[in-house]
Amino acid sequence: MAVLSPVTPLSRPAITPRGMSSAEPLIRFGVIADPQYADADPKPEAERYYRNSPKKLAEAIEVFNGEDLSFVVTLGDLIDRDWQSFDAILPLYDALRHESILLPGNHDFYVAPEKMCEVHARLGMPAPWHHFSRSGIRLVVIDGNEISLFSTPEGDPRHAEAGRRLEALTAAGAINAKAWNAGISDTQFAWLEETLTEARAREEKVVVMGHYPLFPEHDHNLWDCDRVVDLFQRSGNVIAYLNGHYHAGNLGRHGSTWYVNFKGMVDTETENTFAVVELYADRIEIIGHGREESRTLPL
Fold first, then answer.
1. Reduced to 3 states, what is the DSSP secondary structure of residue 99?
2. Nearest CA-CA partner of 150 in 109, 195, 210
3. Residue 129 has what DSSP assignment?
């Protein structure tokens, strides 16, 4: 499916599409992407305002606290660089009255080599990839940073594998053959396949969350994007994949899966961006705030 043109709604539209149920949502949760905080001067040419993210994050948390939500997920890149940046951004989540689910992006590993192995624990994750259920929906968190040139130090076997993968992608002319992207191992892929199979046996719909885009084709996509998209199509029960990383945002649909790329909070000097997602039996409602778009995605 072609990428949809961006619009900029500032509030939830009062929409009741014809033929769609107005029943209560099965689940509601908040979404944040790429706060990317650092105590660093802005880069206006790249629309990066690192020191402004704590204020934006606090504003988002205040809005979320006024909502009935199951959890709030941050789709990676809490920081831009430096281990001490976590000390400034993470305490803001203490004000959140909902469960907070954090996962890392590439920038969260731009720390000292000896700290790379501590990133998942610093984010309070039960495991680098994991899943949980809410209201009959299976929520799956994947770790797209597993095989990369930035999440492991030189000498680590995964670092060497990342070099080989990037070299092969470059030789093949892949547009996502970029050092700021990454991939997943065969072990994680097998776990994801098994998780989707188990959910299908339980007749559960699935939402997968990660940092890197998978679809449509883009230079920010996960190295393994085609393989994972094919898995979702074969599984048939993944209704949505949610991600950040590409700060301008994106949207596509492949098979029965919507691919929603949320906009980056660090971009722009003053405008915020975050969303509330509602899952219904027949549709997904995305209620955008600030630069994030509001959408109705039929299932």
1. strand
2. 109
3. S
